[in-house]
Amino acid sequence: MKIALLQMKYQGSHKKTIEKTVENIRQASRDKSSLVILQELHQGEYFCQSEDTKNFEYAKNFDDDVIFWSKVAKQYGVVLVTSLFEQRTAGLYHNTAVVFDKDGTMAGKYRKMHIPDDPSFHEKFYFTPGDLGFKPIKTSIGTLGILLCWDQWYPEAARIMSLNGAQILIYPTAIGWFDNDSKEEKKKQLKAWKIIQQSHAIANSIPVVCVNRVGLERHPRDLREQGIRFWGNSFVCDGWGSILAKGEKDKEEIVYAKLDLKQSKEIRDIWPFFRDRRIDAYKDILQRYCW
Known about the structure:
The chain is of the alpha/beta class.
């Protein structure tokens, strides 16, 4: 199965960004991709750098956004993974991944479960933690375990998705560093980010796909702030954790890879991690802290 990861930067407006995204989906379809994955909050800028109630306006068009991307998936005959800002009611919003099958039908959605709150990543101001659980989404090309950005640091999320039958773990992402971080600090952050996701692939014997932004996005309200330089490096690894394809750190591109979903059975027959789990001894995992 050929897949396409759309690693993009914000184009300066939602209209231009969406137009460029559709253009890239068209190209991925022409290149015979069955699955196309977009980055986190791909319709516009990463607005969580500031706390501004005006940004909730982006969520009011959620239903229209669903209709639009449904038509795109159908037009180009791809399974499409999107990341949208969902308003359920006033004051209740989610960071929501919506998956569309090749015929445009909504295969399912996932609401981001782990919500960060860090300098320039003020997501707790905007997003309510998800309430749909870690349920994979069945599509015509396979069962997809969709998780979002901050979720990628949690082995529990990857494990539960896998136990529920996910054949691929997919992480639409918006992560970057600050320009005044030291080279050593940047290197440590990027290395940790890659290793944790490769470890999910190995521990669960399934491929992992991560699609990240690129480009510098300035703080929208305070130009003295350095903004976030999204570090790209979108990648695909197989169930051994081996890198199959990788994007550059600062380049817009479509990253292609081919996946063999039969490989997971071959790995699990050799390394039966699921068989040897001590489910009778794991009750402490339900505690916040055990000391």
